[in-house]
């Protein structure tokens, strides 16, 4: 479990690189070898050029007519920067969709994750309105599963680590979807390389586990896949990607500027998943949910809500977690004495510590077998900060409504 300090100190967030899309990168910041690798990745063809000096590149598809770039092979010649500048300007003016992707890869060195869905065609090659939304939703679920796996290896994450994983997704850039059939995410190598590596490895592990189940009828290979980053969250993302299609593919291409990570293939090719894999994926997700154990924890949190059915007896509280578990909130059922202590601590603006087991059922949002509730002494400044924070939430409003009504009055 990760811990956050009670003093409220927050680690500075890395800002997004300042990228000006109205003009190409400066030639002096571009490595010719990286530009050539990106052009090749995005389907551009080298069609001659002076050997050892520069290459002539043309875009894929109809845009190739009348368009070409002269890209130096190195900076060994005096006109290299001029050629790079002209090539970058031509990319910025190009109508080829791949030109923008090349510019993104240059501006923010990124690992590229691509998804393709084989969606049945509608009239005249159209696609359902919802296809684009389904693709983006599935892709986001998959990126989140990869980000969660960078925090911990678990068959089921639930509410754990969501805050840090979601923050990591804030660095990811996304390209336009193509009729709900194709989408590319650009994951900056700094700080997102770990996400791309973990997702790459987890997808391969899931693909191998499905093949093993089909060959042997056994599902135990999914247990070993957890070590590679597989989880219920990932299998659900794959189900969302494949459902309603004739098949789907996923590929990861590494940022040329950052090189190929250790233990990863340079050109592994896309992984394919079909509707025939859905049963195995759903069974694996259910297996992960059943197998993930509850976790013993000692949580420190601020009481934001109290509830019980009468003036006496046991009750439940909701804590905003400060330390002890990487979740934002947790619900706790307490005996009468512990409930009274929690209510008094809330009224005087003190957090409490409580022992229990964070239950996997319900997504690790509930603490079972809870007890040993103890107020935590903090200085006046910290107490004022906690009280102000509580007063700014909707939970405190609900608390006062309940207490004034007499149903949930703490002793």
From TrEMBL:
Question: Which parts of this chain are annotated as the region Disordered?
Answer: 1-30
User: Which domain of life does the UniProt lineage start with?
Assistant: Bacteria
Name of the protein: Uncharacterized protein
